[in-house]
Write a structure and sequence with these properties.
The protein has a single domain, classed as Roll (Nuclear Transport Factor 2, Chain: A), CATH 3.10.450.50. The chain is built from 4 helices and 6 strands; from the N terminus they run αααββαββββ. The protein has a 6-stranded mixed sheet with strand order 2-1-6-5-4-3.
């Protein structure tokens, strides 16, 4: 015995089977806090940790040179909460020459991702006045560092930061 199926019923049945698959396929991909290659991530984090230590030391010594010539790429771009980007070594030198004299910093990496010659890392960027008599309180930025591997060496291609902090539980 044959049961007639109307065209509308067939279309409805096909749509019911097809729509969940489409919805799943349209979900944005999620990137975890680790790369697909754990060894690659560990190597990346070891390299960026050394660069963060270099930047912290440069602040402690009031020396802008390692920051503008070794930490950041020559054409790096940064943007902060005021929304005014600065780009390139001259802009970095102007910006950092003042603040390395006034503050010490500590970079606390939170989440990182790397794939080949590109990576990013979210961090807390802690800032404290060098002058113990200062009435200014320490503060923190949430910062996203963008990294590129150039000639086998990691260099910061830029960053974006806002006042705040990740809770590192």
């Amino acid at each position: 015995m044959k049961f007639p199926i109307s065209g509308a019923a067939m279309a409805l049945a096909l749509a019911a089977a097809w729509l969940p698959a489409c919805a799943a396929a349209q979900q944005p991909p999620q990137i975890g806090a680790v790369s697909a290659m754990p060894d690659e991530l560990a190597t990346f984090q070891a390299a960026t940790s050394k660069l963060y230590a270099m930047k912290e030391k440069a602040f402690a010594q009031g020396d802008v040179d390692p920051i503008i010539n070794r930490f950041y790429a020559a054409n790096a771009i940064s943007v902060g909460p005021e929304g005014k980007p600065y780009e390139g070594r001259a802009a970095y030198a102007e910006n950092y020459s003042k603040i390395v004299q006034t503050y010490n910093v500590k970079v606390e990496p939170i989440h990182a991702y790397v794939n080949g010659n590109a990576g990013w890392e979210w961090a807390n960027f802690r800032v404290a006045p060098k002058d113990a008599a200062s009435t200014e309180k320490p503060f923190s930025f949430v910062i996203l560092f963008l990294w590129a591997k150039v000639n086998g060496e990691w260099v910061c291609a830029g960053d974006s930061y806002v006042v705040g902090e990740f809770k590192n539980d």
